[in-house]
Amino acid sequence: MSSMEPGPSTGDHPLPVVAQAPFYAVHPRTDCPHVESNVAPLPEAGLDASAPCSTCQDPTENWVCLKCFRVFCSRYINGDMAQHMGETGHKVALSFADMSVWCDGCDSYISHEVVRPAKRAAYRSKFGEDFPENSEDAENSAAR
Ligand SMILES: [Zn+2]
Ligand SMILES: [Zn+2]
Ligand SMILES: [Zn+2]
Q1: 73 C-alpha to center of ligand 2: Å?
Q2: Please, which residues have CB less than 5 A from ligand 2, an ion?
Q3: Structural class in CATH, domain 35-127
Q4: Using one digit for the tens of pLDDT, what is the confidence trace for 64-96?
Q5: pLDDT digits (tens, 9 = 90+) for 55-71
Q6: What is the pTM of this model?
Q7: Which end of the chain is more exposed for a tag (fewer CB within 10 A), N or C?
Q8: Domain boundaries, the chain
């Protein structure tokens, strides 16, 4: 008599959690032509990954514009980053949620050497340790 014991997890792929955690499996573009003109040098103070949205003060899911370093909320909150991009023409933003970088001009996630310092600064601010240096792939597990 064999009961259907659940047993220990054997590392089967769990079903993806719906929404919320953006553990997307997309491949970021690496040839974004906007990044050079839409990413400014990092402020000396670095980045504050816990900064609230400049417009609505929502603290939960924000992006920082890599052109002007203002912080706005995602489209899942009030869409203030999308509005900021529309108003200013700034195109590249970094997510404090998962350290991904979005280019509005490409309408895609991007990966580029120019955004790495910002990514590192945000990661350090959020987790208190350095961004894993070995690979860009690590960004998908940045939120553990
Ligand atoms: Zn907002
Ligand atoms: Zn901006
Ligand atoms: Zn682009």
Answers
A1: 12
A2: 65, 67-68, 90
A3: alpha beta
A4: 999 999 999 999 999 999 999 999 999 999 999
A5: 999 999 999 999 999 99
A6: 0.76
A7: N
A8: 35-127
